[in-house]
Amino acid sequence: MLFEKADLEFLIEAKKRAPDSLVEKLKSTQSIFNMHIPKTGGTFFSSFFSQLPVELYHNNHFKCNPNFSLYPDPTDSIPRNELFQNQPGFNNSIKISIVRNPFDWLTSYYFHEEGNDNLPWQKVLGVGNCRAMYNTFEKFVEAYCDDSLYWPEGLKMFKSCYPFQIFDNNGNCQADFIIKNGSNNELSKAIFNISILLGCPMKESIKAFERSNKRLSAVKKKNYKKYYQDSMIEKLSEKWENILKTFNFDFFGSTVKDEIIIDGAIFFLNKDLKLVRKL
Fold first, then answer.
1. d(CA 241, CA 20)
2. pTM of the model
3. What distance in Å separates the CA atoms of residue 279 and residue 246, rounded to the nearest whole number?
4. What are the residue ranges spanned by the domains of the chain?
């Protein structure tokens, strides 16, 4: 069982804890558009809802701003240089994205793996094959923080502000709601919350969780915190100051108790590459 008793008690109160705007939005639509940012938990999100009587549009790693470069290193296929706005379901669905604690996200980015073990020359080691360039996580973090070190051109926006894909060329967030994926099971609680508000039977939702396997990297075996040294945490905390403040994260997870779903009232300053949360 994924949830403990305390979690289920939390979920029973889902309708009371969900943002009012989420409840209102779900009254007018029964379809979900997943604005998937790589390595945030979007695959788990779609795996869960694909097992329930919900119309789901799963869109892999597109963007909203045509002016930002987003294309894969030739060794990988994660980013795609298309617009979310041009995909089926965008205009008539509730649009949801997931933002993962950046410290956790970066380890998943580095330890991402794709390909056939029997064809090692075709394997992708990290997004953009970053492990082929930086053979330790420490070296990778150094490159992530230092603009003078090599980084694939089509993936550079992930260094500047990794949730950039959900903002259009005017800086407006195109996701109606953003799920926080921290270290306290927020993602699981949030999607269960949404399934309840959509009228899905709790038993069916629990079964969907049991059948959905979280996509943990075959290489990344440890908790993300184990990969960091104090100097790396300090350097990244400074680099991510704006993102951490906007989404209420720190190295250990969410800094706001029980904040699992926030509305899309966030603005992206394109020139400054900074986020502003409208309160």
1. 29
2. 0.90
3. 10
4. 5-277
